[in-house]
Amino acid sequence: MKDKSRKNQIIERFGKASAYDQAAFVQKIVAKKLAEKIKLTFPNSTFLPIKILEFGCGTGFLTEELTRLFPKAEITVSDISPAMLERAKTKFDPLRNALNFQVLDGENPPQYPFYDLICSSLSLQWFADRQKGLRRLIDQLNPDGQLWVSTLCENSFHEWRQLYHQRNLLCPIMECASISELQSDWPALGQGEWISEKIIDYPQNGFTFLRHFKKIGASLPEETIPPLSASKLRTLLKLFDQGEKKITYHVGYGSFRKSSRKGVFVTGTDTGIGKTLTAACLVRAWKSFYWKPFQTGLSEEEGDSAVVKRLAKISDDQLISPAVTLAAPLSPEAAAKQENRIITKHDISFPSLKDNEILVIEGAGGLMVPISPDKMMIDFIQDCQLPVILVARSGLGTINHTLLSLEALRSRKIPIAGAILSGTQNQENRQAIEKYGKVSILAEIPYLDQVNPEQIEIVARNMPAFDTIRPSIDC
Asked: Which of 249, 254, 294, 314 is in Cβ range 3.0-4.6 Å of 199 for a Cys bridge?
């Protein structure tokens, strides 16, 4: 309740900061510096962020920089203060800037969707629990995604604080974290670092400093410190004006890159299309791990995990047990319903592998197979954050089914590693899929009169090396 009350005070204080832009010159400087640092981490136009979340946008200083740096990105612009967000909206032309404005508490982001870049300038210092907030944000990053933030650090405004100390008074300006404290906040699932810089302001006098401080909404005092009397405040202002009249901002710039996942998600244009055979060949070729998250039909067969283990000759360590096992040979949702179950996110935990280990995930059926009342297989694929290999039959009907599946994947901006055709080779169909689907055919698996480990070994030799795959999102 205490945190909630504090948050409400922050929202109210910033909502009233109507002269924010005129007074927030330091905020403008920091936003530009942060944008410059972000730009340096995306030097290659091939790997620009597609989905971006900015939290704590204020009136849009960093937003302006992001729209310039990444004009084709989908940018969600958010702030905890509705009034601030409305002022930010007025700076942008809705016809030129495809921005999604949303009232959002950056410390408690929604669980979906996932982003390639999450960033914020000078809002982190207002988090009630900085470490938990940062980790929640990192959870929303795609593998290899980046979090960039700037925040005020320890010893900011120390000239003003020193005046309080000289008079044996408690300074109401909030204490900020040190760089070492900030560094300890990063989790172990990626690489994070902090650097600090000084920005020095030379206000005309102490009253000018306090007036600017109030205009930007940053004057909310610490809860346990009562405000000064007017006479004591006048004494401090006089002391400030007798000195050098400068204010130092210690600004920390934090960056975090989430560890990437190595692997692919094998799905198909239909059920019985050859996904398991393809997965076995890939596992054999890459000496990878295998995971079938949803296994149905166990009342009639041994399950795909056992098949892949036998065909690809992998060890128990390379085989990751299914998250959900069901008896009926139906979609996961329908099979679960027969067992009076509903599959939820709590049933599924993504496997934790080492950085150099490759994971092959095999889906159940095609893209639009229901998993639960509110989730389809394509939704789960999106959650896995791995490029897709689409398995399609080589014969009659494949062009339509394959192009529709590719279109569905691209509509969700899911990276596509390529397609693999299964069955008797058909050069015309292959060429049509490559041309109209704008996708690479990674391999063709011929009809096998015998499916055994020896045949899988032969076919696996024609699979592309994992490091040669180049996933694409664009059509």
From this structure: 249
The answer to whether residue 390 scores a pLDDT higher than 50 is: yes
135 Cβ contact list (under 8 Å, min separation 6):
187
Active-site positions read: 292
Residue linked to tokens 């190595």: 262
* Interatomic CA distance for residues 26 and 199, integer angstroms: 8
Task: List the CATH code of the domain at 263-468.
Answer: 3.40.50.300
Alpha-helical regions (H) of 105-205: 130-139, 158-166, 179-183
Average pLDDT, the chain: 90
Binding residue positions for substrate? 296
pLDDT surpasses 80 at 231: yes
Paired sense of beta strands 441-445 and 115-121, if any: unpaired
In this predicted model, what pLDDT tens digit does every residue of 188-230 receive, in sequence order? Answer: 767 899 999 999 999 999 998 888 877 665 555 566 788 888 9
| CATH H-level, domain 2-258: superfamily | Vaccinia Virus protein VP39 (3.40.50.150)
- Residue reference for tokens 């897709």: 388
Angle at which helices 275-286 and 453-460 cross, to 10°: 70
Binding-site annotation, residues for Mg(2+):
276, 304, 362
C-alpha closest to that of 146 among 231, 69, 217: 69
| pLDDT tens digits, one per residue of 269-320 | 988 889 999 999 999 999 999 999 999 999 998 999 999 999 999 999 999 9
Name the residue among 262, 251, 246 with its Cα closest to residue 206. Answer: 246
User: Model pTM greater than 0.70?
Assistant: no
Q: Which amino acids are annotated as binding site, given as ranges?
A: 272-277, 296, 304, 362-365, 446-448
Helices assigned H by DSSP within 176-218: 179-183, 206-215
Q: Tell me: the pLDDT tens digits for 146-174?
A: 999 999 999 999 999 999 999 999 888 88
- Residues near 163 by Cβ (< 8 Å), separated by ≥ 6? 236, 239, 240
d(CA 358, CA 61): 41
The Cβ of residue 158 has, within 10 Å, a number of other Cβ atoms equal to 13
d(Cα 456, Cα 168) in Å, to the nearest integer?
79
Predicted confidence at residue 3, as pLDDT, reads 56
Q: Where in the chain is the domain with CATH 3.40.50.300?
A: 263-468
